[in-house]
Design a protein that fits this description.
alpha/beta, five-stranded mixed β-sheet, 7 strands, two-stranded antiparallel ribbon
Length: 152
């Protein structure tokens, strides 16, 4: 059995691990800590969680860029979070690939759907994961699961 990690990067993101058969294994809401007035990804907590899955066969990280009307501070925060996650994954020796939102959304039939469609689809596929019921964190969790699932 192979383990696939999917990551929705960012301060409000999520990490998930499933098998190559699409079976849910575990997830982690992106751990954060305060640095001054800002939330930053807690790299040590990400590493602690990933350490138990260091034998994972592959990690897929959503490749996203700046969005229209997004401020520079927000873009920096997102880029910092994505860089922390990538650094931890690479540092642990887990093979990784960036995947665009268009690629995983196409695979899961979500192109042209609203943002919450991913959460709805994940709930349909994994009804026992109660964290999917959380509006914000559930959305990030759904994205990370579907990112992994699109690449099984």
């Amino acid at each position: 059995m192979k383990y696939i990690i999917g990551i929705d990067p960012g301060v409000s993101g999520s990490l998930s691990i499933i098998t190559d058969q699409g079976e849910y294994v575990d997830h982690l809401h992106m751990p954060v800590m305060k640095v001054g007035k800002k939330n930053r990804v807690n790299a040590a907590a990400v590493a602690r969680w990933l350490k138990q899955y260091q034998c994972a066969d592959h990690c897929y990280i959503e490749k996203v860029g700046a969005m229209p009307k997004q401020g520079t501070a927000s873009m920096f925060s997102f880029g910092h979070a994505a860089g922390i996650v990538e650094g931890v994954v690479v540092g642990m020796g887990i093979p990784m690939t960036y995947v665009t939102p268009q690629a995983w959304e196409k695979h899961t039939g979500l192109i042209g759907k609203d943002k919450d469609a991913a959460r709805t689809r994940a709930i349909q596929l994994y009804p026992d994961i109660s964290d999917l019921d959380l509006k914000g964190k559930g959305q990030a969790l759904a994205d990370s699961i579907l990112i992994a699932r699109a690449n099984c």
